[in-house]
Known about the structure:
Elements: H1 6-18, H2 23-30, H3 34-44
Amino acid sequence: MKAYSLDFRQKIIDTYLEGGISQRQLAERFRVALSFIEKLLKQYR
């Protein structure tokens, strides 16, 4: 499986920071696993 690009990861983070969307909704919107979202945001913090 190919790693996600930094641009894609940043887009997810930016969307989350805009507010009003849960981690589960992010996962559905970007079609990735919830665990990926959780790890990504944990690393960001």
